[in-house]
Specification:
globular; seven-stranded mixed beta sheet; binds 5-O-phosphono-beta-D-ribofuranosylamine; Rossmann fold; alpha/beta
Length: 200
């Protein structure tokens, strides 16, 4: 069984889509922990509603970055986390945690990386940039997380057309549907590999 920790800062629709998918498929994977830097996040509320342990951990409530990182590391260890899923998490993951979980942290990004990624490229800014550059296609990417924003190896991508009268809001809505499809797909691929690996 793959124990998953989700990190989310906002409403949590990717978290919810992943949860629903794992429930439906009774996959060899389960979300056992939700960490958010935002105590009002919809993701925290959803976690509570389905009985998933949710922790509000943010740099702001610790007196040093080291203490914050230690609290995150402890929560991951105590829950025997095998895979970290960043689902709309707006903070960098401390390099110490990236190193400890290398190859076991994935992120969902609302564009076709390596384009339209990196610091500051989140939310509508991504879609505004795609429209500004008159791109004909956009989409979403699931990738491994390393020490740089939106930089690690790509796991899955899915493309959609950019439409003539697209606004950032309309494009964001269609890209989000892609995200809700490919994040669960990527997690299931990883869970299957983990299962076969452990079966030897
Ligand atoms: C998604 O567009 C995701 O790609 C980006 O932030 C948004 C999170 O949305 N990282 P939600 O909180 O999963 O609804």
């Amino acid at each position: 069984m793959l124990n998953i920790a989700v990190f989310a800062s906002g409403r949590g629709s990717n978290f919810r889509a992943l949860f629903d998918s794992l429930q439906r498929e009774s996959a060899e994977a389960r979300i056992v922990l939700l960490i958010s830097n935002n105590s009002n996040a919809g993701a925290m509320e959803f976690a509570r509603s389905v009985g998933i342990c949710s922790l509000h951990l943010s740099q702001k409530i610790f007196s040093s970055a080291a203490e914050f990182t230690a609290a995150v590391s402890n929560a991951l260890r105590e829950n025997n986390i095998d895979l970290i899923v960043l689902a709309g998490y707006m903070k960098m993951i401390d390099p110490e945690i990236v190193a400890a979980y290398r190859g076991r942290i994935i992120n969902i990004h609302p564009a076709l990386l390596p384009e339209f990624g990196g610091p500051g490229m989140y939310g509508y800014r991504v879609h505004e940039a795609v429209l500004r550059e008159r791109k004909k296609i956009s989409g979403a990417t699931v990738h491994y997380v390393d020490e740089e924003f939106d930089h690690g190896n790509i796991i899955l991508q899915e493309r959609i057309p950019v439409l003539e009268n697209d606004t950032p809001e309309l494009l964001a809505e269609r890209v989000l549907e892609v995200e809700h499809r490919i994040l669960p797909m990527a997690v299931k691929q990883i869970a299957d590999a983990h299962l076969h690996h452990n079966q030897g």
